[in-house]
Amino acid sequence: MGAEESKETASVDSSFMLVEEAALAEILFNPINSQAVCAGVGRHLNMRRKPQDIPTCDGDTKLMYSVLNDKLCIPSRNITVLNSSPDSQYPATICNIEDSLRTAVGKVEADGILLFYFSGHAVRYHGGSKVALVPADFVEDEKQLITADILARSLIGLKETSTQLVLIFDCCFAAQVLRDVSVIMGTLGFTVCAIAACAAVENSICFDMLGAGFFTYFMHDYMIQAQSFSCLPVKNISDYCVPLCNAMATLVLKRSGANDKQLVDASQHPTVITTELRLDNEDDKLVVTPVSDETDSAKSRQTPSYSNAFQFLAYQSPEDFYVDKAWSEMLSIWLKTKAASCLKVLQKHSYLKKKEVIETVLCLMMRSIAMLTAAHRPELALKPNIFVLSYFRVFELMQDVEPDFTQTPEDYMRVAILYYMKGIREYLDKTVSQMESLVGLYSALISDQKDLKAGQDETDNASTTMSVMQELEHTILQVPIGFDDLP
Predict the structure, then answer these.
(1) Rounded to two decimals, what is the model's pTM?
(2) pLDDT (tens digit, 9 = 90+) per residue, 211-221?
(3) Domains contained in the chain, CATH given
């Protein structure tokens, strides 16, 4: 139908403002008299034509249930959870969402709230002038979308004077659909507290390793830190989540590559750190050495020994271990002007001590660096030593920002190269077979992790490489950070 479907699993310079907050900083309510409906559409049931699945949306509903039940003290019998996990008895279809809202409207009592939470895709239609939510059974007909009119019609029976309506949407273009619902309900005399994960022209972000959308993850994290709440702290949720979501969004580049003049005009920044990469053949350790005297907090580090991985690197051309200076400066600028400030926001709230956040940040940054490199010099992005150097520069930055950073590079290198290759695929449209050197490094990393014995015959190696390429082709296509706009 010519719609653009999205809960993009990566943002495009999103500001993540909660643009439709209630006028009050908090909402007082009686939890016993309240009702809640949580809908997460992580898996689309129709196979004829469907948007990209987002497994984290089902996880979002679990986090939201925990907030509602454990912290806002709404009884479990008053909370309806609809999702699309295979074992769900109540999939988030359009009929189930409408029926659940109507049932909740009939049960909510005086001084209670009716809260509707949605996580999933949103879709623009009518030339982008309207936005609707995408249920689990969406095919390609506008009649199967959850529009503002449908939501308003499902909520029409609310008691105008005694019930507060709360809408929380973690989806792309969230503010637009929330605004449309609020306008309709406002004409009927209702006051709506609408909390959006992003503005009307922005995209929401989720990431599989985090297990949730960024907004929902941070909102849940804020809420569980308290003993309990006697109200819904709207302003505090906003103040906590906005800078964190902004930080994560900044680490994700547009699919079209870098348009930042600061990155293009790197020659105007002579004090940036330039780095060279060399292999110490005597102890199989890679040495990263700052070249410039302007070292700031950068340190010369040695990686832990990866015998297979670094033997692989040793067979690369000697000139590969001296990098393009302009690229090195570009990388330094991005790390110093973009990434560092984002990491400091996360560090302020101790998120660089959480494994799932560390893994997420590393993967997002490696994907972005791959795209920056591909925009600068496509052939450079395909060199395995560029990945290795970038990876250690990122790791070094995280160690500098977080004094108590205890992770080691080997913990994440294998997953980091997946997202680096994902970035190359998105920017250059390369197949796995066209990333032969990176596949070789990935195979070597697998060999290190599996601790394969020395002397494996060449047939086994060839077989392993073939299976690795098949695995990568599937994984890079499925890695849920891609952009899923449909024509």
Answers:
(1) 0.80
(2) 888 999 999 99
(3) 4-250 (3.40.50), 261-478 (no CATH)
